[in-house]
Specification:
By secondary structure, this protein is mostly beta strands. The protein has strands at about 30-40, 50-60, 65-70, 80, 85-90, 95-105, 105-115, 115-125, 130, 135-140, 155, 160-165, 170-175, 180-190, 195-200, 205-210, 225, 235-240, 245, 250-255, 260-270, 275-280. A hairpin with a 5-residue loop joins strand 17 and strand 18 (about 235-240).
Length: about 280
């Protein structure tokens, strides 16, 4: 995932250094120069890293594909090409723009607008940051309240990474663990800005044990089910010490061992990790 371009990390856009321009390239009689720049908006800063420029032939070849003529990852490249017609594509993260250009035997300056912003997400329980390996985020276009089913735009974003998105409204589905601690949040991404989002989960990490007596050793080869009071299965696992992350609320733990079934009700309190013992008797 690309790092956030420098202008996005600056508070006053006008104060962002735009960087030195690319060295000038002189066109020969048989060549032309395509000088490229991109901005976050008409009156916003020049984008000075993270860009991928691709120049294609404007006509497909015999196979129907458009031939890639040049690729450049510079901020303000000067690309030398024979005079003729081309298609220029530029991308910054998931934001992109495309334009046909016609080059003659001189310099053609083309400026693109990519209204993109950065999104960085982290999860918390109370004041504690959730480790990145315990939480994942999916990004969807539009609002969660639009009521239409859609596939995620980005199915998995790691906490702390910066995702570059076109300006607009999105919603985040945050999964803490792999059980039922799920939070949905609408957010707005603005051009040339980094949006930091903290998603709060109300949950805890619970360890389950089946014991012969209180405080005893956990019994191996135990099959577990965690149910809501209404009987919905939240999580199933096998082992002596299964760990499950559960949203706050009331549950029943059911343990099956050597053909016998044992159970116990318990309550999960936000931010209070704990151990639940089920006594086999």
């Amino acid at each position: 995932m690309p790092n956030l371009p420098a202008p996005l990390t600056q508070a006053p856009a006008a104060a962002v250094p735009l960087g030195a321009p690319a060295p000038s390239v002189a066109a020969t009689p048989a060549q032309a120069v395509l000088a490229l720049t991109a901005r976050y908006g008409k009156d916003l800063p020049v984008i000075n890293n993270g860009l991928i420029w691709r120049v294609y032939s404007d006509r497909p070849d015999a196979t129907g594909a458009f031939k890639l003529m040049r690729e450049d990852h510079g901020a303000t490249p000067n690309i030398v090409l024979p005079p003729g017609s081309y298609v220029v594509h530029v991308s910054l993260g998931l934001a992109s723009a495309v334009r046909p250009v016609t080059l003659r035997s001189d310099t053609d300056r083309e400026s693109f607008v990519l209204p993109a912003g950065g999104l960085r997400i982290e999860g918390r329980v109370g004041t504690s940051k959730i480790p990145p390996n315990q939480i994942s985020f999916s990004i969807y276009k539009g609002s969660q309240f639009e009521g239409t089913e859609r596939a995620p735009l980005v199915p998995s974003v790691t906490a702390g990474d910066v995702l570059l998105l076109p300006e607009g409204t999105y919603y985040i589905v945050s999964n803490y663990g792999d059980a039922n601690s799920v939070v949905r949040s609408d957010i707005r991404v603005q051009a040339a800005k980094l949006t930091d989002v903290t998603i709060s989960h109300r949950a805890a990490v619970i360890t389950l044990k089946l014991v012969s007596e209180k405080g005893g050793e956990a019994l191996a080869n135990t099959a577990w089910s965690v149910l809501t009071p209404g009987g919905d299965v939240i999580k199933e696992s096998i082992g002596a010490f299964p760990r499950v992350i559960l949203a706050e609320g009331e549950y029943r733990a059911i343990a099956k061992n050597e053909g016998k079934v044992f159970e116990r009700g318990f309550k999960v309190v936000n931010g209070v990790d704990g151990e639940i013992e089920v006594v086999a008797h």
